[in-house]
Fold this sequence. Notes:
Layout: H1 4-16, E1 38-42, E2 45-48, E3 53-56, H2 71-81, H3 92-104, E4 110-114, H4 117-132, E5 136-140, E6 153-154, E7 164-165, H5 172-176, E8 178-181, H6 186-195, E9 200-205, H7 221-231, E10 235-239, H8 251-256, E11 262-265, E12 276-280, H9 282-285, H10 304-319, H11 323-344, E13 350-354, E14 357-361, H12 370-374, H13 378-390, E15 393-394, E16 403-404, H14 411-425
Parallel strand pairs: 3-15, 5-8, 5-9, 9-10, 10-11
Antiparallel strand pairs: 1-2, 2-3, 4-12, 6-7, 11-12, 13-14, 14-16
Helix pairs in contact: 2-10, 3-10, 11-14, 13-14
Bound molecules: pyridoxal-5'-phosphate.
Pyridoxal-5'-phosphate binds near residues 117, 210, 239 and 276.
Amino acid sequence: MLYKRSSALFKNAENVIPGGVNSPVRAFKAVGGTPIFAKFAKGAYVYDEDDNRYIDYINSWGPMLLGHAFEPVVNAVIEKAKKGTSFGMPTEIETKIAELAVSMVPNVDKIRFVNSGTEACMSAVRLARGYTGKEKIVKFAGCYHGHSDAFLIQAGSGAVTFGSPNSPGVTKGTAQDTLLAIYNDIDNVKALIEANTNEIACIIIEPVAGNMGCIPPKDDFLQKLRTLCDEHRILLIFDEVMTGFRLAKGGAQELYGVDADIMCFGKVIGGGLPVGAFAARNEIMNHLAPLGSVYQAGTLSGNPLAMAAGMAMLTAIENDKDLFKRLADKTEYLHKGCAAALNKYNVTHTINRRGSMISIHFSEEEVVDFESAAKGNNETFKTFFHGMLNEGIYIAPSAFETWFITDALSYDDLDETIRAVEKVAQTL
Length: 428
Ligand code: PLP
């Protein structure tokens, strides 16, 4: 593959954009090399500025569940744009998409639209604090909920300690209110709650983690969290920014049969436009301004183009009864093919999968939390990543990311991917 034009574009970008990118992971820092610049994309493929074609397993980090440039979304956006791109006034389509989303997701009465997953999670936490009158939050090491200060916290010396900021600019005061727990370890969560009696407003979790590679919840971990939250008047927040409308129509709540108190959405719900949302029952949502006193707002929230894209996306999902089975079948096929290819060349690995989320960890150990995810061999991952890129397969440039399977992938695409894994496995 030639990356001549991408390299030149990256050099130009570095002059005027910090690190040449508008979101750090795009810079390929974890794997080395120069990021490829996208020119256009259609269906399962993305094409770069050097006219290389890739089978895309990033899919804009999740939104493109039905493939790139999905026609109903594109047409909806074009038609809306002709009538004005923003009004700062209520529009009918906001109610229509809210009605649709509320009908698809279990256990919610109202939804508020924002502009990103970060905003959704940040607002959900504020709402939980306002509703419970408590200040501390519990998050899990390795889970990502956007770049709001309260989430940029790393573990302290022991799990039952306060976290400390992992970015300059996050104050110690903020870090003190974020407690770090271990994913899939219910005893650890219990200990945190006992050490902070009556102080915890909410537990926020990715119900299937996708930001330390894909890590599904073990056994009845989510159900046990639910029980603990009920016992201690703590709100359970499912960050469904990745899982919402991806694992099932009703997201992880539906898939695992566990009700959360507040759900956060992003990615798929906007069909590729900048959209996030959070939702809950009336009892909680009615605390939001202007009904209640918890403030939350946005100049471009409910933007007509974004709502049109989201509406077209959710409508397509709602009307496709086999979608989630098709996605899970394709992911299983890929899992089996990759495992066989890696086994053929004795490459040590663990594959995690749930629905249309999957990741390969170059580790012997079962990967169940951040610590076990971090044991993966990063050098092997780097070689694998560049090998796959060279074969025309675009996976996330970090071992700590899930792959997102799109319905636009054909079984031929999956076979091509598996052949590439087999070829690259020989070099590992
Ligand atoms: N929550 C989860 C689970 C995410 O994966 C992400 C982003 O990847 C976010 C929140 C933040 O969303 P955004 O990047 O749209 O702000």
